[in-house]
Write a structure and sequence with these properties.
The protein is mainly alpha-helical and 156 residues long. It has one domain (4-155). Helix content is 90%, strand content 0%. It contains four helices and no strands. Helix 2 (67-91) runs parallel beside helix 4 (128-155).
């Protein structure tokens, strides 16, 4: 006859091994989410610096405040706020929540602003493709940062 005390300890030991395996898997997933968000965020910053900033700076220097300048200015401001959120997420792991929320807010704002801008300038709502692209430029790394933060809380 087997001892019931030993059999319960064996099952408890297996559960501890499974818990450690799950914990290790969550830790790996946390790191993967964080680093994909960081690498993806570099493209976001590149787009901000290379594509949107030069026309704004050039317009300020030449004092050419044409129609395109005023359409591009709010987009550049929102992307600048998104870059700040990205930097906050990168600097501290606890900042992932704050930075992720900032970036997600920027992504949602861009997804709403661009179709409205198209509606105002062209007379009908549109430009949904650009809105989706801008949402994913800021929203995707934000979701990954928030996921990494959530997983870190689960692992600890």
């Amino acid at each position: 006859m087997s001892n019931p005390i030993n059999s319960s300890n064996d099952s408890h030991e297996i559960n501890n091994k499974d818990a450690l395996r799950i914990k290790k898997g969550l830790r790996i997933t946390e790191y993967i989410c964080r680093w994909i968000a960081r690498i993806y965020g570099i493209f976001f910053i590149y787009l901000f610096i290379r594509v949107f900033s030069p026309p704004i700076v050039e317009g300020i220097i030449k004092k050419d405040y044409s129609r395109g300048y005023f359409e591009l200015l709010p987009t550049t401001i929102m992307m600048g706020i998104g870059v700040i959120g990205y930097v906050v997420s990168w600097i501290k792991q606890k900042g992932e929540i704050i930075g992720g929320r900032i970036m997600l807010g920027v992504g949602i704002a861009m997804g709403i602003y661009l179709p409205i801008l198209h509606w105002i300038t062209e007379g009908f709502p549109g430009d949904w493709g650009t809105a989706v692209i801008f949402f994913f430029m800021a929203g995707f790394p934000a979701i990954l940062f928030l996921t990494a933060s959530f997983l870190r809380k689960r692992v600890i």
